[in-house]
Amino acid sequence: MPSAGADSALLLRPLRAEDLDRVHAWYQDERLFFDLVGSFMPRPRREAIAWMMRHWLDPASRDVRLAICRTADGLHIGNTYLTGIDQRSRAADFHILIGGAAHRGRGYGTAATRATVEHAFARLGLRRLRLEVLARNGAARRVYEKCGFVLEELRPRAVLKPDGWQDVCVMARTAEGAEAAPERWQPAARTT
Q1: H/E segment holding residue 37
Q2: What is the tens place of the pLDDT at every residue in 72-109?
Q3: pTM
């Protein structure tokens, strides 16, 4: 499995059944979803884990789901996903989640994004990755830009959050590297 590139503090490995309790706990933290595109959906543990087993760990799935682990102690701190893999166009959607707040803002997201991008292009033979991020999530957008993603589209008021409608940025990266894109938008002011 890929290491986190130059950052030997992280290792990516396939997501396993024994990880799913921890992942479920992360997904039950409503605060985590404040700056994520997805919606918070509380789910009973048994139901959620059964769903993840069927959909995420299905060996027939083309999706790639990786656990982000600290090298020093093996602690599972988040996940990266390559979903909707299209073999014909060699493209996929990229997702990342750093589960615990204590592990955010420490460079783990950047290292894991770089390692997943490298894995997608060098090992899986993909040529294009796409992602969606809330426009107000400046920290995530900066990580993606550092990793070569560029803005392709701004979807105004695309997602309803508890504090109102939020803009969504669609970003992409090709195997050839970041493409120059003009600055075409300004992020929406954060509403409270």
Answers
A1: none
A2: 999 999 999 999 999 999 999 999 999 988 999 999 99
A3: 0.87
Angle at which helices 108-118 and 138-146 pack, to 10 degrees?
40
User: Phi-psi category of 84—alpha, beta or left, where left has phi over 0 and alpha has psi -120 to 50?
Assistant: left
* Strand order across the beta sheet in which 150-161 lies: 10-14, 64-70, 76-86, 91-98, 128-134, 164-174, 150-161
Contact by Cβ (8 Å): 154, 167: yes
The two structure tokens encoding residue 137: 């999530």
Single-letter amino acid, residue 161:
K
Q: How do the domains of the chain map onto residue ranges?
A: 10-174
Amino acid letter, residue 166: Q
* Distance from the Cα of residue 10 to its chain's centroid: 16
Smallest CA-to-CA distance from 148 within 167, 171, 169 is with: 171
Q: How many CA atoms lie within 13 A of 65 on its CB side?
A: 18
Contact between residue 149 and residue 175 where contact means Cβ atoms under 8 Å apart = no
CA distance 142 to 12: 21
Residue 100's pLDDT is what?
85
CATH topology of domain 10-174: Aminopeptidase (3.40.630)
Whole-angstrom distance, CA of residue 33 vs CA of residue 184: 26
